[in-house]
UniProtKB/TrEMBL annotation:
SUPFAM superfamilies, alphabetized: Acetoacetate decarboxylase-like
Protein name per UniProt: DUF2071 domain-containing protein
C-alpha cells in the first residue's frame, strides 16, 4: 500500500512508564529515552491511499487521521506501537482493523486552514461519559526544512520503519514501512482541548516537549506478518 501524508504535526511528550506498561503486549519491550518512555500525537491528512495492483477503492482515497503511538522493540528491532488511530473514514477503519489488526476507530473529524494555521478537531465518544477529543491549531514556523541527526531525541522519535500490533487472540504482528528521512520544520501548536491522551490514562505536561511539522511524506507499507 502507498499513502501520502500531508500537513502532519508531530507532538511528543515523555510519560510515566507505569501508564504505558498495560498497553505493551508480551514479546515487546517498551523503549525509553534517558529513562523515560515517550508518546507522540500526530494529526494529518491521508491523500491519497492506494493499494498495490488494484484501482483506487471508492471513498477511501482521502481522509483525516490522528494517531497516538509509543516506542517499542522486538528482539532489539525498534518500532512503533499505536495506542489508538482515529480516522474520519469508516471504510478505512474497518479495513485496517480487519486486515492489519490495528486499533483504528471512527471519529468525527474536521480540519481547515485558518489564518495560516491548521485548525484540527477529532472527537469520539468511547462511552456515555468519556469523550476522546483533540482540538488544536498548528502551523510551521518557517519554510526551512531539516532532517533529524542520528543520536538525537528527534531522530529516535521519528525515524522508525516498523510497526507492531496484536490481534484479538494476542498474537504479535509486525509491518515494514519505507519512506525517505522525515522532512521536518519547526512548528507551534495551540491546544484547545486534549482529552484523547487523558482518556488513555496518560499523564503529561500540557505543552509538548518536541514539536515538528511535515508538509508531505510518501510512505510505502508492506503486508503485516505474524511474529
Amino acid at each position: 500500500m502507498k499513502q501520502v501524508w500531508r500537513h502532519l504535526l508531530f507532538a511528543h511528550w515523555p510519560v510515566h512508564e507505569a501508564d504505558l506498561l498495560p498497553y505493551i503486549p508480551p514479546g515487546l519491550k517498551l523503549q525509553q529515552w534517558e529513562g523515560r518512555p515517550w508518546i507522540s500525537v500526530s494529526p494529518f491528512w491521508v491523500d491519497p491511499l492506494r493499494l498495490r495492483g488494484i484501482p483506487p477503492v471508492p471513498f477511501t482515497r482521502r481522509f483525516l487521521e490522528l494517531n497516538v503511538r509509543t516506542y517499542t522493540e522486538y528482539h532489539g528491532k525498534p518500532g512503533v506501537l499505536f495506542l489508538t488511530l482515529e480516522a474520519s473514514n469508516p471504510l478505512a477503519v474497518i479495513a485496517a482493523r480487519t486486515l492489519a489488526h490495528l486499533p483504528y476507530h471512527h471519529a468525527k473529524m474536521h480540519a481547515q486552514f485558518v489564518d495560516h494555521s491548521i485548525q484540527y478537531r477529532s472527537t469520539r465518544h468511547a462511552s456515555d461519559r468519556q469523550k476522546m477529543e483533540f482540538i488544536g491549531y498548528y502551523r510551521p514556523l518557517s519554510d526551512s526544512i531539516f532532517h533529524a541527526g542520528p543520536g538525537t531525541l528527534t531522530h529516535w522519535l521519528t525515524e522508525r520503519y516498523c510497526l507492531f500490533t496484536t490481534d484479538s487472540k494476542g498474537h504479535l504482528y509486525s509491518g515494514e514501512i519505507h519512506h525517505l528521512p522525515w522532512p521536518l520544520q519547526e512548528a507551534e501548536l495551540e491546544i484547545k482541548n486534549n482529552t484523547l491522551t487523558k482518556s488513555l490514562g496518560l499523564e503529561h505536561d500540557r505543552e509538548p516537549s518536541v514539536l515538528t511539522f511535515t508538509e508531505r511524506l510518501d510512505v510505502l507499507f508492506w503486508p503485516i506478518k505474524k511474529l
